[in-house]
Amino acid sequence: MAEELTYSDIVEEVATPETAPAAANVKVYLNDGNDFLQMGLEDFEEAYNITDLRDRLKKGTGEGAVVEGKLSNMASGTASHAEGGATHAFGAYAHAEGNNTEASGSSAHAEGGISKASGAASHAEGANTKAVGNSAHSEGRNTEANGDYSHAEGYDTRAYEKYSHTEGYSTAARSECQHVSGKWNVVDRDNKYAEIIGNGTADNARSNARTLDWQGNEKLAGKLTVGAGPTEEKDVTTKEYVDGLTKAEKLGFAFATCPTAEATVAKVATCSNYTIAKNGFVAVKFDYAVPANATLNINSRGAHEIYHKGIAITAGVIEADDIALFVYDGNKYQLLGINRDFWDLSDRIARGTGTKAVVEGNTASNKASGNFSHAEGSMTVASGGYATHAEGGNTRATGATSHSEGSSTTASGSSSHAEGYGTVASGESSHAEGMYTVAAGKYQHAGGTYNIEDSNNTYAEIIGNGTANNARSNIRTLDWNGNEVIAGKMTVGAGPTADMDVATKKYIDDLLKKITHGSYCGVCDTAAATADKVVMLHGDYYLLHKGGIVVIRFTYDVPANATLNIDNQGAKMIIKGTGPLQGGEIVAGDTVSMMYDGSYYIIMSITH
């Protein structure tokens, strides 16, 4: 009976031809997935196009190790395998292939060119890569995965710490669990960031395009845009930007007085802290009437034409002692109204059919049949049982205490409100706004356009973004458990605590409520002998701000080394030149302009 050998026996016997049996006596066993198939060595060679296994295989120096390919290959690890050219498999169960590769870690795998896998169960592939950490993986070119379970890919990248991942070009991940991509990032050695995207240009010019720290705070080198594309209108702004814009003088809001004689066309008005701004509102009290083709110059900001109803103002429009409201459109002062204007409503109001109901506007087409109801505008109906209100055009307020406004809206739910165009508020105490929206649930709010109707009262709020009645869709929903779904994306931070935080609507609204659209000057009545000077602005909004200018008139002399405390925001030293104020430099009646530099009030000018 012919001798039967296993595959490892074949490798050993072929490698030592002096002890090998004749080929005809060798049996090869191959596993086809179900059974071991027996065939002769010659059949095996023919089936796999191998002419002579003795030229291909040799036994490595490690137990059960195999070397194939060039004789320069080495397999010294137990059950290791080296193939290719100048490869070395030193680790137990290691595998080295390719050209000049080395797998020294247990169960490591090195392939490609000049790659080294020294960590246990590590994998190095590509060109000149190193997998040093246990279970680490390096690929690409000139990459190193040094941390356990780390991964380095791309070109010249380094993953130094456990569980880190780096990719791109010349990037480095120096912190545990960190992900770095891009190119030439700023290296984080303090484990501050979970993710870094580099945008540097060289090793000595490293920089970051984006970072994300472990508290979820993100920092961008550029700007953040919300919406379909990077347009300026969609850019997210910062608290610092909003704080600057919401100051009354920067918005172009002011109240001015004009003492210019009636015959003078070039009117001059004065007020405090006025900065001309497009879309800014300014009210002006005229001591004398304004002639035709007049111009207005407020605080020497330039003479601009006064327009009324699309043309240059005519004589008799603004009379003596009138207070006129203007908006600056970027070129002209457009007259919006005068304080003595009024309407004669005697021919526009009629009694409705309901108890104490009122109809006004188009009294022929409007109907107020509900008790204490009110219908105004044109073709409006206030028919709800009690205290309903319909206004605008073709609106219906049919629910008790409901309100409809806009055009073609219907408020049919009790205490409901419909506004906009074609909206329906059918739920109790519901609110529908926008265009063709439906608020069908109790206490529900629907806005936007063509929202999906919620007949099950699942949502507290729905914002639609549909395009037609048969193409309704929602951009955002909020259910009664506080769960929100948005069709796009949302950026959330810890709150407006720093100048770069996104400001909320509430923050802006609260800030605007505090603003007094008037002077930021003040009067100091503190006695001459008191060095701690105090100024109260009596309701005006003043925020201690670096770079801010304040003008103070001192009723009494100011002694040396005086301080100034405005609106209880802290006493700050008054500085003139390079040192503290000296006695006699500010005397009674002086008006002083000062700038707050973050620590002191620096005197800019003194008017005696």
Question: In a nutshell, what does this entry contain?
Answer:
This protein is 6% helix and 31% strand. With 608 residues, the chain is mainly beta.
Q: Unreliable runs, pLDDT <50, ≥5 residues?
A: 1-41, 515-519
The CATH topology annotation of the domain at 349-486 reads as Alkaline Protease, subunit P, domain 1
Tell me which CATH architecture of the domain at 349-486 applies here. Answer: 2 Solenoid
- Give the number of DSSP strands: 56
What structural category arises from helix and sheet content? mainly beta
What is the beta-strand fraction? 25-35%
The oligomeric status of these chains comes to single chain
Please, could you describe this protein's structure?
- This protein is 6% helix and 31% strand.
- With 608 residues, it is mainly beta.
- Among the domains are: 248-338, no CATH class; 349-486, Alkaline Protease, subunit P, domain 1 (2 Solenoid); 522-607, no CATH class.
- The strands form 7 sheets. The protein has a 13-stranded mixed sheet. Strands 32-33-35-37-39-41-43-45-46-47-48 form an 11-stranded mixed sheet, with no helix packed on it. Strands 5-7-9-11-13-15-17-19 form an 8-stranded parallel sheet, with no helix packed on it.
- The radius of gyration is 42 Å and the shape is flat.
- It starts with 6 loop residues before the first helix and ends with a strand.
- 37% of the residues are buried.
- The model is unreliable at 1-41 and 515-519 (pLDDT under 50).
Keywords:
608 residues, mainly beta, Alkaline Protease, subunit P, domain 1, 13-stranded mixed sheet, 11-stranded mixed sheet, 56 strands, 6% helix, disordered N terminus
